[in-house]
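Hey, quick one: can you model this chain's 3D structure?
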Amino acid sequence: MNPDDPLLNKELRRDEGVEYTLYIDTVGVPTTGVGHNLNAKPLPEGWAYPLTDAQVDELLADDAGDVFKDLDRAFPWWRKMSYARQRVIANMCFNLGITRLSGFKNTLAAMEQGRYTTAAAGMMASKWAEQVGKRAERLAEMMVTG
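Sure thing. Here's the predicted structure for all 146 residues.
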C-alpha cells in the first residue's frame, strides 16, 4: 500500500470530510482539505481559498505520505498486516497522529501479535472511539475481518 492508495483516500475523505476553505476543527486547530492541520503545515505559498480539487488531493497525498513514514518508523510490523488492517492503522494515525496513536499500547501490541479481535476491542474501549463514533465502529470491524 502507498500514500495515494485510492481506497484509503476514499475512506479518509468520508471519515475526515472535505473542506475547500479554512475551518476550525473540534479541538480548535485551523484545518482545510481532508483534515489538513494548518498549524503543522501551512498552505504552500500562493494558494488561496477556495482550494481546488487538485490542491486538496495534493495536501492529502502529502499528509498520507507523512503518516506512512511515521508508521514505518514507529511500527515497522504494520506493513505485514492485511491490506484492510493497514488501512485501519493508517486511518487511525491520520486522525490521531503518531504520538496519540502510540498511546494505544495494548491495542498496538494485539495488532502486532495478530490478535485482531482484542485489538478491535481496545479500539472501541478508547476515548477516541467515543469521539469518532461510526468511524471507530467501521475500523474495528475491518480490524476483526481483515
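One thing worth noting: The mean pLDDT is 96.
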